[in-house]
Amino acid sequence: MMEARAFVLESKPLTEDIFKLKLQIPEIAAGVQAGQFVHLQVPGFSLRRPFTVADAEDGAITLVIRRQGQGTKALEQVNKGDTLQILGPLGNGFRPMPGPALLLGGGIGAAALTLLARRLQRCTFVMGGRSAKELWLDTLNLPPAVDLQYATDDGSRGFAGNLVRYAGENLQPGMWVAACGPQPMLAGLQSLLLQRDIPGQFALEARMACGLGACMGCTCKTATGNALVCKDGPVFTAEEVVFA
Questions:
Q1: Global pTM?
Q2: Residue 36 CB: number of other CB atoms within 10 A?
């Protein structure tokens, strides 16, 4: 973990409310693991914002950000050449397992899986959304070894149904699953994986005020007691997370 200044290389919209931010910061790009995040200082705001690292190459990292408040709106206005203060990489990432990998990303949660997809030899990566207009994963130019698929609630693109239903119809013995998305999606996947004795890892989403485990604001429940998403996660094994 370190703190450094990043130079903005690119800010580009992906959908109506999703944009990507590419930052030159070799100190962090060189050591980030798939699933880890950074804490970004937003111009004009005192509290940092956590964002998963969606890509890291050639001394740069890419963040995929959903516009949902004044802070993210301010980030979307930065220009090429601006500098931003960053702390990272933070947290614990994914641990690749033997066998075919199935990556399941619900909405903005797909951003937590893209670096993992790039670093696996082969995988199937499915992004879920309510409709086709919410999907953006094909804009990131993932390598040919990634079998990219989609699932939409309204059937407007790809599999007709949510990611839990997709998994129910496509999981095979010997697979392992990496997933990130809304809690109801992860809870449904957890039940399915336990029923079929298939291992999985979940990247949890939470508000992280400090990113270091000091404020205790991102506490989650696990089978062995309370844990901190920022420090003990954000990646946990599927069976250890307790969903209320």
A1: 0.96
A2: 24
